[in-house]
Task: structure prediction
Amino acid sequence: MDNNFDVIVVGAGPGGYVAAIRSSQLGLKTACVESRKTLGGTCLNVGCIPSKSLLHASDMYFKAQKEFKSLGIESTGIKLNLSRMMDNKNKSVITLTKGVEFLFKKNKISYLKGKGIILDKNTVAVVGNSNKKEIYKTKNIIIATGSVPTSLPGIKIDEKNIVSSTGALSFDKIPKELIVIGGGYIGLELSSVWKRLGSNVTVIEYLDHIIPGMDKDISGEFLKILSKQGIHFKLNSKVTGVNLVKDKAVVDFTNNTTSKRERMEANKVLIAVGREPNIGEDITKLGIKLNSQKKIQVNEKFKTSVKNIYAIGDVIDKGPMLAHKAEDEGIAVAEIIAGQAGHVNYNVIPAVIYTSPEVAIVGKTEEELKKENIKYKIGKFPFLANSRAKVNNETEGFVKVIAEEKTDKVLGVVLISTMAGTMIAELALAMEFGASAEDIARTCHAHPTHSEAVKEAAMAVDKRPIHF
Ligand code: NAI
Result:
């Protein structure tokens, strides 16, 4: 293989592999370095994909037990086979990671197996399995090294009793007691999985509400729904220690208001207090500028402070740590390197929590708009008044459309519904086109669908919903 490239991408997660494919599509000679055994990064291997497999399977198990009867489906002897559920999850992961490998071949991308070390603005060393080092030259480098789970001071994740999301995706037995530290995306998705499969789950969250940065209406409603599902919450509580005593993990925490100390023990503790950028020594050595949160500083063209070196995804100081944000940046950076006008609109990045019901958000929350002194109006519509949701017994949740007071332009939408993750795409598209609430209200939505609630919420902005 000729060791000279136009682009070398370091990291083959959703940001990196998409950047490699787009670069190659644009005629750039491209290589992608990956140290994990399979392509696809955290998302495909130990993140979005395996968690969605377990969320789906556990939801089916739960529904078969609790909801089928009311639909007139009598079932007896439903049993959980956890190892088969895990096999199914692993099979999905393998299929999808192999899929990326196929796409690399199809797009003639050189897949460099090993740890990529950036030596200078035109040189990447790749250290393979047998510690053999190969040197590659390139005109451009894209850092797409992603993020790793954060822990708390003094708490060591052993992936056995004290686990990160990686460990919590592969328990071989249902933990009788599971304590989840952190009521964010990961904490709530994995709490849902193990609660449905039979664990007694307690979430300990530092803030007085779940999901930091989420619209308060939603986090309040969501907390009620999850509590009704049997998940216990200790809010406004700071975890101060997690210690192993025999085969149990003992968690100490303190109430932030009353300073009351509490102690709980469990078979497993999941630490889900966020992720931090994966910054290798090479990045530090090269003097690439980082912000105060140790994220790589990039400009609007994803250029770092070092010439020819770009960065995208969880590792940069722009946007949320989400796979689809990284993918869009991957496309944009490749287009910029190829001399085109790649761009990411950070105002319109949807985020979804894949619980049941799902929670989805795009654009600004009311709290953010208040802070920015932007006047707005809202339209809200509950799924209790949506015919399809009623037919399906899925009446929890609502849609809230937030529009600018003067112009009616949609500034944000929050959704809580079984279908929220799919429905949010319509709103992202509307916002990308600069739609007003009236535009959505006047768009014909098929009946009977959950999506009619979006139209009704848009009509409610002008105080004229039909079914509520
Ligand atoms: P997160 O930032 O969403 O939530 C972490 C939570 O831990 C926060 O609510 C925080 O207040 C709490 N916390 C921090 N220190 C604490 C302490 N000492 N005691 C108690 N609580 C404490 O982080 P999470 O859930 O780990 O997710 C990491 C990243 O992965 C996020 O950026 C998220 O967007 C992404 N992700 C996205 C998913 C999706 O799109 N569905 C799924 C999973 C992860």
Notes: The radius of gyration is 23 Å. The chain has a mean pLDDT of 97.
